Amino acid sequence: MTRSEIVATCARLVSNDRPDRSGGDAGGGAADATDSGGSLAETVAERKRGTGRAMGAVYVIAGITHFLAPKAFARVVPPGLPSPRALVYLSGIAEVAFGLGMQFDRTRRGSAWGIMALLGAVFPANVYMATDGVAAEVAPDRLSGVASAGAWARLPLQGVLLLWAWWYTRPDDDPATGEDATTGTEPKATD
């Protein structure tokens, strides 16, 4: 198999087996990635935008809940930190702002960096919630075991959320041209 056949096959797989727009055999031959409806980089960038918007929506909803149940969130702020309710509101505002920023190409990368910083900032509250039994206290008695297990599960999940956000800090490089697919510029060289 040639490189162009591999790229074309990968593009079809990533794009949910969209039919070949060139009128040729969807099986390939010497077709390049654009024969299947766009380059692989364009398809990945399109999917990345979609999942970024979904991630942003989750953060907007999570941020709004900080204003709907501030007492519950204030209880999970570690005791050494000042003004728990103000911190709850501040983190809620940040989640909404970064979540909205994930909706737009121009602000997605900066918002992803913000989400990563926010995840780092709230990690001590997640550790406190798991280790001091706070999760069990804020849940109804019949759900205290589930809440406690959820608090412990949240700790490794934080790493997954960090990696997900980190993905949006990376440019969408087109392997054929070396250009950032979202801006059309060449990526900056790093040493």
Short description:
With 191 residues, this protein is mainly alpha-helical. It has two domains: 3-38, no CATH class; 47-167.
Describe this structure in words.
The protein is mainly α and 191 residues long. The protein has 2 domains: 3-38, no CATH class; 47-167. 63% of the residues lie in helices and 0% in strands. The chain is built from 7 helices and no strands. The chain has helices spanning 3-14, 40-68, 70-75, 84-101, 105-131, 134-138, 144-167. The protein is elongated and about 60 Å long.
Tally the beta strands: 0
Low-confidence stretches: 16-35, 174-179
Number of spatially distinct domains:
2
Order of helices and strands: HHHHHHH
Salient structural properties:
single chain; 191 residues; 2 domains; elongated
Furnish the topology, listing elements before pairings.
Layout: H1 3-14, H2 40-68, H3 70-75, H4 84-101, H5 105-131, H6 134-138, H7 144-167
Helix pairs in contact: 1-2, 2-4, 4-5, 5-7
